[in-house]
Amino acid sequence: MLKQFEHVRGCNIYTKQFGSGEPIVFLHGGPGASHRVFLPHIEPLSEDYHLLMYDQKGCGRSDSPADDHYSIDEEVETLEALRKVWGYGQVTLVGESWGSILALQYASMYPTRVKKLFLTAAIGVDARGYKEFPKQLIRRMNVQDRLKFLYHERKGHSDQVMDLIEPYYVYKSTSLKRKKPMAFNNQANEQIDKDIAKHFNLRPFTHELQSIPIRIVQGSHDLLSPEKVLKTIKHVIPHAQVIRLDECGHWSFIECPEMMNHLLKEFMEIK
């Protein structure tokens, strides 16, 4: 396994790669989390593919930007800079949660650089899904947790917030034992959150996305259901395949790693 920092766009970005073959780049969620959400769950795929991961700016072990400014466009350009460093003309992107937004936004800006898109815990193609997500979370919480969540979120207590919401992100709470602990960047989360709410809209990019094969694997018990995701994307990426993953919540690679790896490998083999 190769671990190293790549200096791109003024920051040292922590990267990790292993395996050989066709390249697959994994984009973590948050915003503000890290690549650790995928490990060790995706490691079996390294027998057939070159797996590439990185911590987004200010996340995990990567540097924060000098101006402390975070945005969707900056993350798109960081990904493009890394693609050039890695030396691949085309890559398949795997986007999880906010990573699905980043993958779609990158594909809309650099469609010729994307071979396929594999998305999970998807949010949709515009800000409506992103705004709906926390509403569904609040609705799912019991009254006591809801009050604690609102209090800690208002106070900026990120650790307490994560402790409260994690059980609602999975189908079975025992799945959380397979989740690695990771640091969380509140500033990146808040700034990109606002950027998504104001600017995320892929409707003008239907043409750019239509030639890219897209598979979305959505947990049956995710906060945004497979049916809701299908409804939100059908006018922009009608060719996208949406697969319902039963007995699974938001963190599909943590809860159902074998099935996720199977579905990704199957998708990669489709010509």
UniProtKB/TrEMBL annotation:
Task: State the Pfam families in the record.
Answer: Abhydrolase_1 (PF00561)
Q: Which UniProt keywords apply?
A: Hydrolase
Q: Could you tell me the superkingdom of the organism this chain comes from?
A: Bacteria
Coiled coil region boundaries: none
Keyword set includes Hydrolase = yes
Q: Does the keyword Transferase apply?
A: no
Q: Which residues form the AB hydrolase-1 domain?
A: 23-255
Please give the PANTHER family that the UniProt record associates with this protein: AB HYDROLASE SUPERFAMILY PROTEIN YCLE, MONOACYLGLYCEROL LIPASE
Q: What family does the Swiss-Prot or TrEMBL record give for this protein? A: Belongs to the peptidase S33 family.
Query: What protein does this entry describe?
Result: Proline iminopeptidase
Print the organism lineage.
Bacteria, Bacillati, Bacillota, Bacilli, Bacillales
